[in-house]
Design brief:
The chain is an all-alpha fold. The chain has two domains: 144 residues, no CATH class; 82 residues, no CATH class. It is built from 14 helices and no strands. Helix 2 runs antiparallel to helix 3, helix 4 packs across helix 5 and helix 12 runs antiparallel to helix 14.
């Protein structure tokens, strides 16, 4: 009887240990591809417990595929909204609050170039996306995401040139080639031309122009801050209130980028 009890107890302990083992990477890949939103979110949480250098390439690619799936869903929503269509009650992107940010965090830990297009096109914004993009330096300059991510793309270009030393981030400026710097300068020039960008983006475009350090672009930005007629010419706006708001935004950028 005692032997039976010991045997049953040993089986119970073994079952507990087996049940406590995390799922295999193959199982996580399958969940990311076919699981429910809740199951996918749990899978990403489990991936986060695996050190990045121990995640296999198939798992990384499954994570990238999942981020790109959410990106396509986000872009479809943006396109519907831009076309004036009424959006249905779609809920949180990915189905679980916080899932998108958790996924971006995990995907951003991959140091392989294959992750770059997914990061650049990812919905959302902020340093959580721009920091891993900036690590790729020159290669990131020529990449572009969906039109709805325009502001994030400009921020990434600025960070490539200047870095970011705001805690908890400590990102050094990228070692950009002369060709890449020239490309950024040309982009800023093109965006400041009449109808070169949407008017809500003009202040951040001005910030990019100032970051280049080009004297002519700075003079152009200063003129935009002073002359409502110049803003009207660039944006096509005639509403005085909207033009005033834009000029305040541009003036703020000039304050953040004092002339040296």
């Amino acid at each position: 009887m005692l032997k039976n009890l010991v045997f049953v107890s040993a089986l119970s302990v073994a079952s507990t240990v087996t049940a406590a083992q995390p799922p295999s990477q193959e199982a996580l890949i399958a969940t990311l591809r076919t699981g429910t939103p809740t199951e996918r979110a749990a899978a990403v949480d489990q991936v986060a417990q695996i050190p990045p250098d121990q995640r296999g390439t198939p798992l990384w690619l499954a994570l990238v595929d999942e981020l790109q799936r959410l990106t396509k869903e986000s872009e479809a929503r943006d396109d519907m909204s831009a076309s004036g269509k009424e959006l249905p009650a779609l809920g949180v992107l990915g189905g679980v609050p916080g899932y998108l940010l958790d996924l971006i965090t995990v995907v951003g830990e991959w140091r392989d170039l294959r992750v770059l297009p997914a990061l650049i096109s990812a919905p959302g914004g902020g340093t959580i996306i721009t920091e891993p993009i900036v690590r790729f330096g020159d290669i990131a300059v020529a990449r572009h995401g969906h039109a709805s991510h325009f502001a994030e793309s400009i921020v990434a270009l600025k960070m490539l040139m200047t870095g970011l030393a705001t805690p908890p981030y400590n990102i050094s400026p990228a070692n950009l080639s002369a060709e890449s710097r020239s490309g950024i300068l040309q982009l800023a020039q093109d965006l400041l031309r009449p109808k070169g960008t949407l008017w809500p983006h003009l202040a951040i475009v001005a910030s990019l122009a100032l970051t280049t350090g080009d004297p002519e672009l700075r003079r152009q930005v200063e003129l935009l801050a002073k002359e409502p007629g110049v803003v009207s010419k660039v944006t096509g706006l005639i509403d005085a209130h909207s033009i005033d708001l834009i000029q305040h935004g541009i003036a703020a950028q000039l304050n953040e980028h004092p002339q040296r």
